Amino acid sequence: MKALLLLLGAGMLGGASILLAKLAVGAGISPLSYLFWQCLGAGGVLLVISTLRRDMPSFAPRYLRYYFIAGLVSLALPMGVGYFMVPHLGAALAGVFTAMPPLITYLLSMCIGLERARLGRMVGLMAGFAGVLVLYVPQLSAPDSTLLVYLLIAAIIPLSLAMGNVYRTADWPVGANPVPLAAGMMLASALYCLGFETLRATLMVPSIDQSYLWGIIMVQIVVAALMYMCHFELQRVAGPVYLSQIGYVMALTTLIGGVALFNEELRPELLITLGCVVLGTFLVRPGGKKATSHAVDV
Fold first, then answer.
1. Domain locations along the chain
2. Entry pTM
3. 114-140, pLDDT tens digit by residue?
4. DSSP string, 129-187
């Protein structure tokens, strides 16, 4: 029951993040600047919580490696691409990509020998792949190839999230607790965003009178802090494959939110794709092991 509640909580909060990002980008802030303020603020909140618990994040090289690799593949890269794609694809379609990591996580596990190929699971992979084709194939013959380009770029999201799911479990430091690890990952992600936006000379600091935008950022900080507390605790107790199912809840949240809040069209291909992906992951889902059982101390 604890794992299920964490899954639902992290998934709904993750979907809310995508919807909030659409509001923020629509208000004029660049996607990576928005992600920077989100990571900096939420990382700071988690750092304070860790300090109050007397469980500060370690800055030993082994931990710094974890923060920066996890921060890149689990947050900065996929969420940065996702926030950039929301204005072009819509929240509903962008959210569908978050439902694909479980399939890729299992496929990666097979490739490196952690899982064996089984008929039912192979059928599941084919079902998920068929769902993805429903989105992509029509665009191959479309007169305007712009959407296809956006879809190809958006494919980075599930691939990176799946890699992050596997990495965070495989390299989880022995004895480390979820909140300080989440704080370190988010602050490392903030540094990635800061560096990239500074190089482009586009880091945006909203002015004092932009209360609407600051309000969205403040809500996002709270949402992100709560989401990653649930996220890392779920990873600790249930492992990467079960954790990856957060994508289903995120996809459903953004699908409903996109239609209800932004009047996005509920296109049949979105429902078909989401259904195929959910069915595929139900078939391929292996029994997950706790993250701590894979942790190594290097």
1. 2-100+148-263
2. 0.81
3. 566 677 767 776 777 777 677 666 655
4. HHHHHHHHHHHHS-S--HHHHHHHHHTHHHHHHHHHHHHHHHTPBTT--HHHHHHHHHH
